[in-house]
Amino acid sequence: MTTIAVLGAGRVGLNLATALHSAGHTVTVGARGPVEAPAQIAIASLSEAAAGADIIINALPGNVSVAVLSSIAEELAGKVLIDIANATERGPDGLPSELLYPAGSLAEELQQALPRTRVVKTLNTMLYTVMTAPQSLPHPATAFLSGNDGQAKQSATALLTDLGWASEWILDLGDITTARAPEAFTLLTAPLLKAFGFTPFALTVSH
Prior knowledge:
Elements: E1 3-7, H1 11-22, E2 26-31, E3 42-45, H2 46-51, E4 55-58, H3 62-70, H4 73-76, E5 80-83, E6 88-90, E7 96-99, H5 106-113, E8 118-121, H6 128-131, E9 143-147, H7 150-162, E10 170-174, H8 180-184, H9 189-196
Parallel strand pairs: 1-2, 1-4, 2-3, 4-5, 5-8, 9-10
Antiparallel strand pairs: 6-7, 8-9
Helix pairs in contact: 3-5
């Protein structure tokens, strides 16, 4: 059993928190304000949640993640930070239109801003419902891993396994710079939603 802080109390964060709690972990959601959550999920401030956790999941909006997480750098020091966010500019329709870090990635920005934290990028290439139910699609989705620390990626892989991800569905791309490619996939979100509506989707690599 692992103590986990999910930072971000939107539907993505609460979905993950509920699934990880069901898998037997102790989970606290870090929120920036009042939030309604399932009774079994503890709510705390971002700093309190991060300070009490072994592993932190960044489910904050990507455009504020660097600034917000930098403000709790001490609480994140020495810990694994699993980044599932995408940092984009939004178009008039509210959907992603441009990458906020076109020459890099959010994961790289976080690792640079938090040098004492071990950042792993994963789960950012799918609708949030697929994160906790990868078997729900006709074809198995692929969960990519990017990060500089091998042990941190092992910790992330263990959590993915608890969420129902088979080992053959998890693909380690390499160091943190490899997060650029899966983060760029978010630009397909708008056309996919316009084509298919709000239905589960993910990126699948077959070989």
